[in-house]
Amino acid sequence: MPEERQAADSAGIGRRIRERRLAQGLLQQDLATAEISTSYVSLIEGGKRRPSDAVLSTLAEKVGSTVEYLRTGRDETEQSNLRLELGFAEMALRNGSPEESLQSFNQILGKASSLAPELVLRARIGQAGALEGLGRMEAAVSILHELAADGSLAAGSAQWANVNVALCRCYRLAGDLGMSVDLGEAAMRRLDELGLDVTEDHIMLGVNLVGAYHLRGDYTRGELLSNRLLARAEESMSRTARGMVYWNASLIAESRGKRDEAVALVERALGLMAEGDNLRLLARLKGLTGGMQLRLEGGDLGRARILLEQAKESLDDVGTKDERGDVELALAFVALRTGRPRDAEELAASAVALLSSRLGDLSAEAQVALGEARILNGRTAEGEESLHAAFRQFQQLPNSRTAAKACRYLGNVWNRLGNTELAMRAYQLGLDLSGAEAIPAPPLRTAVEVE
Description:
By secondary structure, the chain is an all-alpha fold. Helices cover 75% and strands 0% of the residues. Helix 8 runs parallel beside helix 10, helix 15 runs antiparallel to helix 16 and helix 16 (279-295) runs antiparallel to helix 17.
């Protein structure tokens, strides 16, 4: 196979030299020098000889080309332009414009034959990221699996880590927590086997695995991995990488009932990432910090509102629809807690419109908040319809602790309205969503008649 590849490369070099020579109106003897005979030029153009770097450099100058083009067929100027386009597409994706970035990545990949392999890889990873941002998880996962199966992707490299991080994240966002955990654990095991120095890409793989553990309710493994990542991140990682570790560690701590520890961790994350240039990431973290204050018993609602409004301002410019909806829902809860039902209704209605079906528990919870606000505003019939719509959404969701908690909120609202029957139905559904199995009742015993 290497000999066949070498022959094909030689033929390509010879063809491009001939094409450039003819385009310049030159004869083979015009390329000859004291070191390069006319017959040697003929052998090179025929693909029967592979020129050395020095000879190729001389011939490139003679035919008005570059060594890179003659060797690979890729024009350096075009490569520079495509590299610039790729950088802008990646920036658009980071700034929360997946539609714009997808169009750019598709245009770049339309010129794949002119791209260096490393640029093709970056463009395909970006294409998958844009599809993820648009909620097209199946298409994103398909590309990522193709890349993961590519033998040229060296295990442990930055690109390998990026692909595995994206796969773990996409399956988590799609609700397939089992696959997300399996892929994340397999990648972490591979890194341990390789014994490589820990990089920020590897830290991000661990962070995404912690996120999957959190959503699956596997808090013990999540805490163990978080502690391991914290120890490594503190050694030499950037402020952003350390912030991401503290961020996810705070979620695990909150889920385990360690509220004070969770607040300390998320505040540490916010302090580390406040000076970064990733506005979208910082806005999401502010939203998380504000939401945690909102959930705390006796939490600082004033600080929660400030952080959430700052997050909303940034995400209105750079966030996805789901990220904006998440923050607006949290602000609706703040409005409900501070006696502003009109603001709450407006924010909850916006959240319902923004949140996609793949975030089903949040979308259903937004319907509950909207129903509660409408009832407080005196529109009872409309409010109750929103509560019924939320119940129907919860019935369609897979089991998860987040869905169970949100369904319990629905039960609480019905209970406050005095409708105990619908409250009990919501509580029962919440138990089912938590995965709790009912203890089977003993068999009925029939009385034995005594003659």
